[in-house]
Design a protein that fits this description.
alpha+beta; single chain; 111 residues; 7-stranded antiparallel beta sheet
C-alpha cells in the first residue's frame, strides 16, 4: 500500500496552485506541477479568459501555508505557452516560467 503522506512529502514542493484574478479577486483556480523547469497544467486552467493577473503559489509540507508566490500579468502568462491541447483533446499546457524570480528561487531551494 502506498503511504500518501510520504508521497506528498516528496512532491509537495513541485505542486503549484494557479489562481486567475480579476481586479484582485480570485475568479477561478487550478493546479499544476513543475517538471524540468516548466509548469504543466490543464489547458482549460491555462486558457481561462477574463483574468487580468495569474497568481502562482507553492505550499509547505502542511499543504496550507504558502511558501512561494508570484503574480504575472495574464498576457505574460499566455505568452509563455510552449505546447498545449484543448480540453476536448488531451487537455494539457506546458508553460515556460523558469526565468521568473519565483521559480529561480524555488529551484535554488529544491535543487
Amino acid at each position: 500500500m502506498i503511504d500518501v503522506t510520504e508521497v506528498w512529502k516528496d512532491v509537495h514542493s513541485s505542486i503549484v496552485k494557479i489562481k486567475h484574478l480579476k481586479v484582485g479577486k480570485s475568479i477561478s483556480s487550478g493546479t499544476g506541477f513543475i517538471c524540468r523547469k516548466h509548469l504543466i497544467t490543464n489547458n482549460h486552467v491555462y486558457a481561462n479568459i477574463g483574468a487580468d493577473k495569474i497568481k502562482l503559489e507553492t505550499v509547505l509540507q502542511d499543504g496550507y501555508t504558502t511558501n512561494l508566490k508570484i503574480e504575472l500579468t495574464y498576457d505574460d502568462f499566455r505568452k509563455r505557452l510552449i505546447e498545449g491541447m484543448p480540453e476536448q483533446s488531451w487537455d494539457f499546457a506546458i508553460i515556460s516560467i523558469s526565468d521568473t524570480p519565483f521559480f529561480q528561487l524555488l529551484f535554488s531551494c529544491n535543487g
